[in-house]
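Help wanted!
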Amino acid sequence: MKLAARETIDSFVKAAFRTTGLLVIVILGGIFVMLLWNTIAFFAHIKPLDFITATQWNPGGNRASYGILPLMVSTGIVTLGAMMIAIPLGIGTAAFMSEYANSRLRNILKPMIEMLAAVPSVAIGFLGIVIVGPEIAKLAHQANGLNALNGAVLLAIMALPTIITVTEDALQALPVSYREASYSVGANRWQTLRKVIIPAAAPGIIAAVMLGVGRAIGETMTVLMATGNASAFPKGFFHSVRTITATIAIEMGEVPYQTTHYYALFAIAAVLFLITLLVNLAGEYFVNRYRKYQAT
Amino acid sequence: MNEAIIKLSAQGLNLWFGNKHVLKNVSVTFPEKQVTALIGPSGCGKSTLLRCFNRMHDLSPDARIEGKIMLENEDLYDKKISVTEVRKRVGMVFQKANPFPKSIYENINYGLKINDIPSKERPAIIERALKESYLWEEVKDELKKPATRMSGGQQQRLCIARTVALRPEVILMDEPCSALDPISTRKVEELIVQLKKQYTIVIVTHNMQQAQRIADQTIFMYLGEVVEEGRTDDIFNHPQKDLTKNYVSGHFG
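Answered by r_m:
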């Protein structure tokens, strides 16, 4: 009797866990179908070619224009800038913590960096409005600093904890025998780090960068607050930009249900989804390229 | 020890890890172009002693060393000597084969690049090192293959090739065969016997038969101290001390 009860509980738990597992697939599939459905509805109104090639995003005007190009370029500029700042800083910090810092310093640094990740994005955006933006404006002699560079700096701050933590884990996970092998042929720390440790940890570092890119592309509140959101075609780091995420956040609340504009927002969300997917696939590709040299 | 030139020696060497006194007043000598085996039960300090000779303990912040280690007439712990120079002159082969996660060719090339050997000379040196470790015939057509795809024995011989490519004066080996099967072990042992024509070799081993097969000199250590050193034949067949006798005859350890 007792045995039978245990069997029942076991199969019940198994069924419960299977349900939770399958639920994730259902949710992901649901989101995908919803995006796709509304995107198809959008393309019933607007030609895909116009969507891709039009250089203006102006849904409200007399002659409405739904060009995704300025939004994509905005997202691209901000993300690129953020990564140009965050990748060297992140890998440098991780390398310092893993290879140079003593254990006491590392035990102070690591929780602090993890706390940086806990700062809400709205607080970072606020920082951009009151500190980073005005400083950029002063340096660039502009009226205000709400531009792509501001967004890039803030996104770099937000992506840093991810990049540092994942990179440091990747460096620490390498067997000590790699370091010993390198030192035993007369290499110094820098040579060991650059020629053995970083290449061997490359899959982890690329994964770290990809997670950072994903964070930057998808981040909404900070860029919404810090980049000015001008709908003109972006001209560079010192100009106001309007990212895909900010556009959806700004316009979704006001758009009438099931209009072309409404469907258009789903279409750009689908593009965002596609970009993140490609970023992840690219990460996977690099991970596999380096993995073949790893010991099994 | 005997009339051979003393290549490497430790004089009054003491080592602590934190408060733990691991090596106690160790004084040993290693004759040039001979194989010297370090034997003794686990934890007796053999590997710790071995790692003093290429300053591997520099990497552990809690290690403290007193005493002298001389490579011919130079003190390896002299402040004027750079640690990278020491490690080039005193090569090391580790217990578990540790090729870099790179190709076979790059595994040897790395040390050459690090030590500024001109790129024109490198291919010939790599070929020579692979021939000296009897690996050339097995790998000459697949130098671009990842080293981690080789068998355990091949990996260990690659690590030896990586070491000899730099033409060190001394090669330290820390139980190089402990992870290998008998056939790979025999190949590595044959290789060691060949290598002693050119190099001074210090090998840590748990395998008594191995020490007898390949070592000219043997040093027996126990609890961080050197108990007895001498010709391998004497240590195994006519030990002076009971402790040595009990260990080599398999009564403990």
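OP: Thanks! One thing I noticed: The radius of gyration of chain A is 23 Å.
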